[in-house]
């Protein structure tokens, strides 16, 4: 769990300024919620925190994001290592559909470590699935495809895949928007448990959800101003 200091951040797509002049402290062992209208740059901002913007043609970042003091954009920093330390969970649960549940959990780990023993792999699968509150539901069907479980279970599988690589930070981009209310509550409970270990940033459209899960809420700019996304306020959620 690490702290992130965002300093004077601007993000461009070509000439278009999508995120302007964001300064923000993201505290460790806490949940920071980001709220704002569609198109104000929330997803763009999240992507800058694990250098995913670099895979988008034309996207460019100015400014700094310091993770426990180390600039994530430093020349000597390996973007692959940043992505290992800063995991991402998306709006649509995106397990590899034909890959088994167990292999889905291991998918990220195997990018870094191809020579794990079978027993180490099994232990890691169990640990990550327990960490994602999914173990009891899938322990008898680990070899079934990722697509064989419900949407809410698939989202927890994606969280298991993200935490299996032992990141410091978890970014969640509207992780409940595609889920039913019961699955949503399961994810919110899980977020509350995960915050003891990870720095969590969640983008949500739901004020009640922000109030339920977050310690701090960052409000991005108001619709119709015609301006790029700016952080207008940071508030303690309670
Ligand atoms: P939000 O997540 O708040 O809905 P986004 O970060 O997705 O906002 O988008 C912010 C702005 O940047 C929008 O105007 C969007 O159209 C634009 N944008 C997002 N992705 C790209 C891209 N790959 N290329 C060009 N413009 C983009
Ligand atoms: P969301 O609603 O989840 O924020 P969007 O609908 O804004 O997603 O964007 C969906 C995808 O299209 C994203 O990968 C985003 O980067 C891309 N995108 C969004 N706006 C533009 C744009 N103006 N030009 C190119 N790509 C864009």
From TrEMBL:
One of its GO terms (molecular function) is ATP binding. Pfam families: ABC_tran (PF00005). The keyword Ion transport does not apply. GO terms for cellular component: membrane. Gene3D superfamilies: P-loop containing nucleotide triphosphate hydrolases (3.40.50.300). CDD domains: ABC_PstB_phosphate_transporter. Residues 4-238 form the ABC transporter domain. One of its GO terms (biological process) is phosphate ion transmembrane transport. Keywords: ATP-binding, Nucleotide-binding, Translocase, Transport. PANTHER family: ABC TRANSPORTER I FAMILY MEMBER 17. This is Phosphate ABC transporter ATP-binding protein, PhoT family. The lineage of its organism: Bacteria, Bacillati, Actinomycetota, Actinomycetes, Micrococcales.
């Amino acid at each position: 769990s690490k702290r992130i200091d965002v300093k004077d951040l601007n993000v461009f797509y070509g000439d278009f300024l999508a995120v302007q002049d964001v300064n923000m402290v993201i505290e460790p062992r806490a949940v920071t919620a980001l709220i704002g209208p569609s198109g104000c740059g929330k997803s763009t901002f999240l992507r800058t925190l694990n250098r995913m913007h670099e895979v988008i043609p034309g996207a460019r970042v100015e400014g700094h994001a310091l993770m426990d003091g180390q600039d994530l954009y430093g020349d000597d920093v390996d973007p692959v290592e940043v992505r290992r330390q800063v995991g991402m969970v998306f709006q649509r649960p995106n397990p590899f559909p034909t890959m088994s549940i167990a292999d889905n959990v291991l998918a990220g780990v195997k990018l870094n470590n191809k020579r794990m023993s079978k027993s180490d792999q099994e232990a890691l699968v169990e640990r990550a699935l327990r960490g994602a509150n999914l173990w009891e539901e899938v322990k008898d069907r680990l070899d079934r495809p990722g697509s064989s479980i419900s949407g809410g279970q698939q989202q927890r599988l994606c969280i298991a895949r993200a935490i299996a690589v032992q990141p410091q930070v978890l970014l969640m981009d509207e992780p409940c928007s595609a889920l039913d209310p019961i699955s949503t509550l399961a994810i919110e409970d899980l977020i509350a448990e995960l915050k003891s270990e990870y720095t969590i940033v969640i983008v949500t459209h739901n004020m009640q959800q922000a109030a339920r899960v977050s310690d701090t809420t960052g409000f991005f700019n108001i619709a119709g101003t015609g301006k790029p996304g700016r952080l207008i306020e940071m508030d303690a959620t309670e």
